Automatic annotation (TrEMBL):
One of its GO terms (biological process) is intracellular calcium ion homeostasis. GO terms for molecular function: calcium:proton antiporter activity. The chain crosses the membrane at residues 147-169, 255-281, 341-360, 372-389, 401-421, 441-464, 476-496, 546-566, 597-615, 627-648, 660-686, 721-741. One of its GO terms (cellular component) is endomembrane system. It is found in: Endomembrane system. Its main location: membrane. Keywords: Antiport, Calcium, Calcium transport, Ion transport, Membrane, Phosphoprotein, Transmembrane, Transmembrane helix, Transport. This is Cation/H+ exchanger protein 2. The keyword Chloroplast does not apply. PANTHER family: VACUOLAR CALCIUM ION TRANSPORTER, VNX1 PROTEIN. Gene3D superfamilies: NCX, central ion-binding region. It holds the Pfam family Na_Ca_ex. It comes from the Eukaryota.
Amino acid sequence: MSLSSSDSTSRRRRTAEQAQDPSCVLDPHANCPHGEILDPPLDTRPPPGHHSSCPAAKCSSGQACVSRHVCEESWEEIKSKKTIKAENEVEANKLVNNYRFGFRKWKSHVTARPFEHRSDVVKELYSELNVVKPHSGPGQFVTCGNLAYVLLFGWWVSLVYFLVGILMFSTVIGVPYGRLCWKLCCYFLWPFGNTIHEIGNTLRRCSEDGPDYECSVETMEDSLPVLLPSATEGPAPEMPERPPRSPYWHRLSTYVWLLLGYPPLAIVHSLVCFVSWILVFTIPVSKMNAQTLSVILLLPPEDVLLSTSSHRTNQGYETRALLCCYYAANWYYYKYTVDGINVFAVNLLPLVIVALVIGYVDKENKYASSDVKFATAICSIIPLSYYIGMGIASISAQSNFAVGAVVNATFGSITELTFYITALLRGHRAANPCLQEVVKAALTGTLLGCILFIPGICMIIGGLKHSEQRFSSRCTGVSSALLFISVGGVFAPTLFSKAYGNLVCDACTNSTGGNSTSNASGPFVCHNCHYDLKNGTLFRDHIQPLVYTVSALLPAAYIIGLIFTLKTHSHIYNIHVEGQETSHHGTVVHWSRWRSLLILIVATVLMSACADLATEHIQPILSQPNISQYFIGVTVIAMVPEIPEIVNGIQFALQNNISLSLEVGSCIAVQVCMLQIPILVFFNAFCDVGFVLLFSDQHMWASISSVILVNYIFMDGKSDYFQGTALVVVYLILLALYYFAPSPAGC
């Protein structure tokens, strides 16, 4: 989701203005300055006993407030009102969905935003490198990014051009291309502020040689004043005729160039394109090299003109700017998107192909070890999770709430379920009970991360920028109540087994060194103590029916929560949408519903393959003697798939929308308990893979205490960086417990 926000200065100014104008606070529909989300200021709550500020419109029968209780209720209703500014109907749907229980919270836009409405910073990111801009002089281009370009790319690209130029001069026929290479050699050493033009009667040639090609007159007209005299200097001189020349494809030098000169330069520019694109912040370098490779190097050499920032020449011909780069790096490229997908997720997508190739082709680990294959497979889950999230958000935004809820419930947990089921199947086939314990540790780790770490890190980052943030405790209470129910239900069979199970210990000895059958007196020391459940009737007749009962009740509670928030009590979110500019039919959606569904299916299949590779090569990781298998489960396997959600939560917190940041973690935690675990239980009923809903004491008490702590912190409806620090510190303490804990018995 994308919520427009201003900086802290303008936000404080807006708050002060609202405090001076009571009507602005009391009437959410008044013409107040606000962004996409407007919550009333914190310091405008009416003092006790003050009744005149209570709006009459909020009182029953349209009459004035007569009691402090009624006035406070009206104020609470106004305070919880959220005004959302949406660019179109689809975005409004997505924004409203973000506040509803059962929908995954999504930051990015699902529709293409009008370019003219974007900020100047964002426009600069998407601008083409063929616009000549005014500048003060060469000195302004001496920046850290430009100097880094020279060190990383400029010197060796120029060296390659110099060598290719020598090669072309040696052929005699390719002398014009040799001159061009030496010109570009100087250009690519320091391209900033310099311009490459195409000269000649381009517009006429375009019309004559390619009648079916669309010639851009506006581009020509816009670029002409760069090198031609302005209107104030008198009429432009008449363009001289170009000397006759043979067509481009009828020259022998063209084929010499394409065979000898162009291939090495194509390799060099392709390599620079790839590296600079992967680095993200150097995307302008990638654009510059792509333009050179696809356009400039395929032009006749006499049509290429270079002009420096300090000396621009005009030979009297029509010109068109092809390439002019001013800065090699831009910090704001972390916002860059490709078809609605963030550039970082796009860059990680090839990792999926790498994981599949080395995983299924190199079966004998000749070229990559199991550790490398496991790391690659786990990291490839990150972009797939991002694409799945975008697909879910796109379908939900273009559908009604019922369809959106079904899609969220179906695909919202597909990432984790794919890994869990794959691990259970592989562990069952290999008779390896350790993978079952890893799955339980991953489930617990997801709970702890979503309950403690995600809200905590969002509170810290949001609190550092906005000091104190507020959220609606009533809206958060829905997820909190369901979280209490779900955690209690999940660990109910474990508590039941502790109460009624028989404790069995092996290798018991007394202080005198005798065995357990000895009559010697003294304390006994026992090892490998556990509850014996399967040798008796307790598990079969009591615990297993309880597990199935709980697994049926938890999804039912999830459905009731959906009905409560989407149908009967949707007013508790009190969301007002305004500022819609276009209808649904006039909106350009990045992904249509069918495309989103296709991407969801493909991403799920790829996720299954990557999860299979990860579980196949996880054993060397589990065999590390100094790291507990519990720790691997609660950290790497649990939190890597949630990285896109963590990023979404942090972005919400930076925009002073902490309520959504908190809902990110709660939504995932509730889905883990109410959907993922029951699905695993019923999957085990149809295909016995040994998954038993009995957790270790550490899992149980860590989860229960975390839920209690979070609900205590959420109680006052306020958050700051101190509360966030407390949550993160508790999470790190629990991770330390898992790190030093011994691995499960038999693993």
